[in-house]
User: Fold this.
Amino acid sequence: MSHHTTSPVADVFVGRAAELDVLVRAVRGSPAVVLVEGEAGVGKTRLVRELLRHPAAAGRTVLLGRCHPLRSPLPYGPVVDALRHLREVPLAAALPPITGALHPLLPELAPLLPDPLPRADAGTERHRLFRAVRDLLVVAGPAVLVLEDVHWADEGTHDLLRYLAHPPREVPLVLTCRREDRLPPTRLADHVLGLAPLAPAHVRELAAGLLRVPEVPEDFAVELHRRTAGIPFAVEEVLREIREGTADLDSLRPGSGDRVPVPLLLRDTLADRLDRAGPGVARVVRAAAVLDAPETEDVITAVAGLPSTDAAEALVSGLSAGLLHEVSPGRYALRHPLARQAVYAPLPGPLRRASHARAAAALAALPDPPLVRLAHHHRRAGELDAWVHSTAAAVEHAALVGDTALALRLLEDALGDPELPRDAKDAFAVRLSKLALQSIVHDGTVRCLRAVVADRAMSRTARSEARLNLGILLINQVGSVAAGRAEIELAVPDLSRRPALAARGMAALSLPGFGDGPVTEHLRWLGEAERVIGDSGDEELVAAVRANRVSTLLQTADPAAWDAVAALPAHAASVRVRRQLTRTYHNLADAATWLGHYDRAREFLDRGTRMAADSDVPYLAALSDGTALRLRAATGGWDGLEADVHRFTEQAGDMAFLAVDGWLALGRLALDRGDAPLAARHFGTALAAAPDNAPAVASAMAGRAAAHLVLGAVTAACHEADRALAKSRRKGNWVWAAELAPVLVRAHLRARRAADAAAVTAEYAEGIAGRDAPLAAAGLDLCRGELAAARGEHEEAARRFHEAAHRFAALPRPHTAAAAAEASARHCAQAGDREAAAERVTSAITGFTGLGLPRDVRRCERALRGYRGSARRGRRGYGQVLSPREHEVAALVGSGLTNRQIAEALFLSQRTVDNHVSRAMRKLGITSRTALRDGHGTADGTGSQRL
Assistant:
């Protein structure tokens, strides 16, 4: 009886439940023949082991034999191996005389066998032998005969298997073989189980079991499946390298290249199979390994260097032996990347170079040469000039079709090659820096460019241009504003002979949103850029400087910005100019959102998005998406916002700076919904993502301070707000303090720093004077309302908060408008005007209801009941005299406004305005709005209450 040692691999069995069920039924039922077939390493032996461990095999004698890859197989070798185990098994009965024919093959069983039979002719002895084997199996009792790798068996074994498979069968027979090799007879098999490679999910499960962890990352499993094609043997060998420390998990992350060393057992197995396949097959398989991609017979033949007929025969043999696979019609390759490595790695250097040279020549002769692969083969062949040429062509083709990620990777790989000629390095470095500005890059690109500008071997001209573009990249995408500005300031002096590039650098330094330097410094750089370009005929340069000029004007809320916007061209014929125009509209959308010009922001986003479709600048699209998310958070477009933000931040990847608007949107959403701790975390993430983005920093710090106030942490709120104030003072662009100023004033007042609150309000008012910034103006009303409330001036506080609510509603910023209306109602009530309080808190209820904030609605409804109850108990009666509110409404009717317009102006519902108009007309004794407009009528009929 066979005994099996248990290894860690033996404890992990995945993806073969259906096949195991077939085997179990074959063993339990009437004797059946099951053929398990599949390519090398697919798990045939593992499946059989699982069968032998199954309860269905308990109590059975397991007779296990295996064929070996010998040039001259031993006669009946696997059957002899299996029957030897019977010496350890008590037999159910005495052996019949015919089994004496087994003495020559099984001398180990001599004590059990009857006397040898007399010699006879070859045919008779063969028949005796077959009968003897069958009878021996009968006496062995309940048994199962398992023969593995029968594709290596001799013809005599195949004939014996045919005999045993014929009815009546005595024992279940389980055979394993490779489909691609010489098959045993299958006609009499009851079941043929074809094992396919494991699916990615099963590879993940197998990997977790072999590494003894609950699970492995999905991307790790996907890459492991790609490298091994789901062949369990290859999976096990790779993971053995990881378990034993030869490789690590990171070597199987996507994009890590072929860092996993080829497992020794896999390499030796393939080497042995190649050796047995013959020299012609070996050359064809090695050619396929050199090509490293599925290719046609003609290309493989050219690389193998064989005559066409010999190559065709060798290709067929390689396919039959499972060394090659037809990946798609007419295209052939090795089974998986590890197999390719195992074949390629042992090739001697000269043979490798010659093979790559033949590969390059064969691919170059194709009607549409694969440029990337062509460059690879030229490099491996040592043909440097051809490599540089092919790489440049591949980069331009990738950029042309919009695959900038591939173009960047090709350039980075080339720049990292120590054999790259100097002139090519200059050209590739500049091209990389330009392409990086048009796409969303990752850390590797930034590292590569940093290394480039630090390389003194490069020409000064190329280094300075690459440095300039690196600086812009650091500012625009990485968020490292200080580092980016430093690179640009270093580059500008070196570009004195290239004024166009110098001006572009100066223009990049002119945008106030980047860095904490004062606005005056940015304006100085803008002036320098405009001076340098003069009457330049460079359309792209002029467009770039103009873009930054109009962006700077709007970022500082200069009223002249709108004339500059109107002067922008609607279209541009040049792709490069169109790209600058696209950038302009994205910058304008961002600036308008910070200022509260939300309708204009949407208009700019729409224009920029339409232009971006033709400009292929992914990072601009990301910035546009971020601005749109921030706009939705401010204006109440909350449906699906969280999910959209999470998708956006995931797409930003390791370029966290691009995700800052998403975190600001989540922070604003959480704060407005009343979840202060979550809001503080989101605002903190935003601050960490973009510490040099001036308006984002002001917004994030204001949000954190507001969250501290909600949580009652007044000291922390003051500290955060004071830090933000210092940054705003240094920057000198007070319009970006629209969210900060009201929070700062509120924090100072709660900390009993009324003088500081008043001083900040005055400073803020002076800072935004003459600026076209509706959000900042609304914020100033909030500040003044807070100051009036602190002084106990309830009528003034009610008026200021009411004006703020009106301004915020007009933007619209519905949550802040509703909160301001609630505050105005509170101070109206404290001033004794319960009717106005009820009207304004009703407006707040409407706003909070529209945002889906039930807690805020319930709070306002309680206040409303109090206002109405107090009004019924102690409200002043006006009799036939117009109340102040009725007088106000009647005056607005007299000015020609409709009831709807009055409702919007006074932040009331239209129904409330309708009631005021009706009461005023009744008290004045008039029946038409025309009379109100003419100012006729009196409350007592005497005309003493003329409007």
Summary: The mean pLDDT is 86. The two ends are 115 Å apart (CA to CA). The first helix runs from residue 17 to 28. Residues 433 and 769 are 42 Å apart (CA to CA).
